[in-house]
Amino acid sequence: MDNNNKTLVKELTKLLLGGNAHADMKTAVKGLPAELRGAVPDKLPYSIWQLVEHIRIAQWDMLRFCMDPHHKSPKWPEEYWPKESAPKNDEAWNESLEQINNDLDEFIGILEHSNLYEQIPGGSGQTILLEALQMADHTSYHVGEIIAIRRLLGAWK
Description:
- The protein is an all-alpha fold.
- It has one domain: Up-down Bundle (Four Helix Bundle (Hemerythrin (Met), subunit A)).
- Helix content is 56%, strand content 0%.
- It has five helices and no strands.
- It has helices spanning 3-17, 25-29, 48-67, 90-112, 128-152.
- Helix 1 packs antiparallel against helix 4 (90-112) and helix 3 packs antiparallel against helix 5 (128-152).
- It is globular and about 50 Å long.
């Protein structure tokens, strides 16, 4: 990998992990009281739990798409959003966050060992670079929503 690609991968990794121009996922959910995970503020369509699960499902889908040319994505939109507003228990919450972190680490590994510009087999022109940008954009958008909901619930710094 040449220096330009190493620099690009380094910057994409920072973007995916968050914390530069926007808060990262870990910060957004840190210290959130369990009883607020399923709270749906007035006039909003979802809870923090539903946003966390949506991030997990979408990121998992993007990761698998990059790895398996036969991957079948969930049905949009119903299979990308959980119906229940709250996790069943602390274990479900923790497992969702753990999968988000693990899948992100796995995707960063792909970034580090792939041709960023080569089309992904089974896709319609997508590249690892495009998927990295989409994943970062999607996650940061919903992390911002998590923080906004926390503010509405009086549970943010």
